[in-house]
Amino acid sequence: xxxxxxxxxxxxxxxxxxxxxxxxxxxxxxxxxxxxxxxxxxxxxxxxxxxxxxxxxxxxxxxxxxxxxxxxxxxxxxxxxxxxxxxxxxxxxxxxxxxxxxxxxxxxxxxxxxxxxxxxxxxxxxxxxxxxxxxxxxxxxxxxxxxxxxxxxxxxxxxxxxxxxxxxxxxxxxxxxxxxxxxxxxxxxxxxxxxxxxxxxxxxxxxx
Length: 208
What we know:
With about 210 residues, this protein is an alpha+beta fold. Helices cover about 25% and strands about 30% of the residues.
């Protein structure tokens, strides 16, 4: 097989999948299943997974075509596949680098819903980047209540910390993420924070 990934859209998709799964390296994808790698293939991405515990482990390589699923949906797709036995035709099973290769057909698989922690992670990642190290906006967070995420952010107009409550029930709303710094700066959204000693004021955006 030609292992080159030359199509620009394939390279972009491959990079997005790699970034989305980097943070899964230190936590199980599913019970007794851990991420081992993200490999490029023509028109597809291959996710290496080690299943089992201790000396009873087996490595699998799940191939997912780029044009059938978005990078953000891949963790949910993998959770569905890893949750129980799946049926594969002989043409969808192979071997690569000592791993059992399984070609998935995402249109036939319903992705499992994302966990609360996974949704929070997506929201937090949307607010941060390498350029934020010297002048960070987000400086802390807390999951509290049902699907509630409190962000601790720097006040853009003067010293101090503002707590911002948002709901994490789906993908991060792009408009809210982009508008967050300006919303925090508006006095009309601010409230006292008598029960939270980690911030000076609160902004409630749970209805936004």
